[in-house]
Design brief:
408 residues, 10-stranded mixed β-sheet, alpha+beta, extended
């Protein structure tokens, strides 16, 4: 009970006086220290004052803590280990990814892709369904979560009310899944073709490779990965002997902006077991959003975004090559082709990567090949106008390229 003035006036302090009187007559029992001291006396043990033992000065000198400085090199064990993870971005974008993976970049898609696109005709009903799918993913979904914070550059300290709605990650996954379903509908022989592919969500890929004496580890989580019973046919055999084909990054290095990894045990990991009936990689899907930034918290440019497609396709192809041909393979007996589609729900980037060799030194004559197209928008605006859903500038070429990749 709380001791208040009213309670004190009720018993005129008699209970307080009684409490102090009874407490003063209590006999304190020995604690644990006294009991241990008695047992030591019985055993004829000498009890020494602790101050007499620790009176001398400690000769151990503690080194001052060294703060990490951005850009400074730290060594883990005998050598330095770099890492590239899902949230990493290369500071030089595609040019740095070329040097890192010993890859030649070729514009446009391979010739057989272009021929197929020229002869492809998508029915109008499919385009109508794609537009409804855009509305469903961007406007009609029932998710209500905190979206990105609003920011005004002219009033940086002003706090806007939080907006609830469909998150960017949710929009990306929904529209990718719907475009895959529409591609399945376009197949002429669905029973034979669609049953030869499987979709794997959240595919984890780990691979280690060496580049000019530096060990680099890649730990990537792909949003979706399509695997098939048969590998994609090679697109081209490229033997490049011109040392100037790769860009010059001077004064930077191919490891610039890569994080320093820990010196721990690491095993290469391909997300599909060798005994699986769908072991071959077909297409990897990755997403990006407005939260995708560089290591220095700067907004990402198009080149940095496109470099993610190259590195994701390289990591999956390299992990498959090590699983199939052994961890020490350099030049592959036959190339491995992986397609990559990257999107933020509105912009799409299509590319095709062919892995010819895991010998990434500058002296290697056989280069890897990467075909890529410029990023295109599926639409310009998807919003409500006067309470009605409105879609502006729908691009029908996206579903055509999507289906071209799916049918390979």
């Amino acid at each position: 009970m709380k001791f208040s003035n009213i309670l004190y006036h009720q018993h005129i302090g008699r209970m307080v006086k009684r409490h102090w009187l009874t407490s003063s007559k209590k006999i304190l029992n020995n604690g644990e220290i006294e009991e241990v001291a008695k047992q030591l006396e019985i055993l004829n043990s000498n009890i020494v004052d602790a101050n007499a033992v620790f009176s001398g000065k400690n000769n151990i000198t503690q080194e001052p803590h060294k703060k990490r400085v951005p850009g400074e090199i730290y060594y883990q064990g005998n050598h330095q280990i770099y890492s590239y993870s899902t949230d990493s971005l290369l500071i030089e974008g595609v040019r740095q990814a070329q040097v890192l993976t010993n890859t030649i970049v070729l514009g446009n898609l391979p010739s057989r892709y272009v021929k197929f696109l020229d002869n492809l005709k998508i029915p109008d009903t499919i385009h109508e369904d794609v537009m409804r799918s855009i509305f469903s993913a961007h406007l009609f979904d029932a998710e209500q979560k905190k979206t990105k914070k609003l920011h005004d550059q002219f009033r940086p300290a002003f706090n806007f009310p939080r907006v609830y709605g469909i998150t960017e990650e949710r929009k990306n996954l929904l529209i990718l899944d719907k475009l895959i379903r529409h591609s399945e509908r376009l197949m002429k022989n669905k029973a034979n073709t669609n049953l030869q592919k499987r979709v794997l969500n959240d595919a984890l890929v780990k691979v280690t490779f060496e580049k000019d004496g530096n060990e680099i580890r890649m730990d990537l989580l792909a949003n979706q990965l399509i695997s098939s019973t048969k590998p994609i046919e090679k697109v081209e055999e490229c033997f490049q002997k011109n040392p100037e084909a790769l860009p010059d990054l001077f004064p930077l290095k191919h490891t610039s902006s890569l994080k320093i990894g820990s010196n721990e045990e690491w095993e290469d990991l391909y997300p599909i077991n060798s005994g699986n009936p769908f072991p071959h990689p077909h297409t990897v899907f990755t997403t990006f959003s407005s939260n995708t930034k560089t290591r220095y918290e700067l907004p990402a440019n198009k080149s940095q975004i496109k470099s993610r497609s190259l590195l994701y396709a390289f990591a999956i192809a390299a992990a498959k090559a090590k699983q199939q041909f052994g961890s020490g393979v350099k030049r592959l007996p036959y190339p491995i082709v992986v397609q990559a589609i990257q999107s933020n729900g509105q912009s799409y980037h299509f590319s095709v990567f062919q892995l010819n060799s895991l010998d990434l030194s500058e002296q290697e004559e056989q280069k890897n090949v990467w075909y890529e197209m410029e990023m295109e928008d599926l639409y310009t605006h998807c919003l409500y106008i006067d309470g009605k859903p409105h879609l502006e500038n729908y691009n029908p070429a996206i579903i055509s390229k999507f289906f071209t990749f799916y049918i390979q």
